[in-house]
Task: structure prediction
Amino acid sequence: MTKPLVVITGASSGIGAAIARHFSSAGHPLLLLARRLEPMQAMNLPDSLCRQVDVSDPSALANAIGEAEKTFGPTDLLVNNAGVMLLGQLATQDAAEWKRMLDVNVLGLLHGTQAVLAAMCERGAGTILNISSIAGKKSFPNHAAYVGSKFAASAISENLREEVADSGVRVMAIHPGAVDTELLGHTTDPDIIEGYEQWKASMGGVLHADDIAAAALYMYQQPQHINIRDVTIAATRQPA
Result:
């Protein structure tokens, strides 16, 4: 392989799938991870391994990464993209939804990072790109628990960047605004879903997953000594 391995979590749809297509087109071998195997396989990307993994399971995650590295060499980029968005009012929301968001959005990010970080630091190179959210920077109605998980993802990204900067490893974060993906479908409250859809329509449309993927590729392709630490991307007409 002439280009290094890229590992992408949450690669079965939306931003993760778009990132997979963009990096495959750029010639990278890929490890694609998600709970749903068939959509990843259906992309039929060359030099790619697809594995059914829940990022809240650190052993399964580490085993899949180890398998890919035996074939393609060390992980040079980890994209922590797996995430769930379960919107709701704290007074009434099922606590199981809070746990699911924390397990995936926070612990999943930590598990993935730990699986590759020590080797990156030892090599003095590598990139970890965390897909957070604009909800990791500001609050929104019905988002309290989700916002908490994304503020955590953003804070972890910056704290880790400071910790490993001297090793030569880059830590980056993208904070997308509203994007046309399956993410809203995780929410179980129909009134919240309807309100969110009206909000998207009011701004004349939102971003596409390919918009985020193009940004991710641009950030990664900068020389290793350049770290685009934090990018926030939203539709021009998104007011918040």
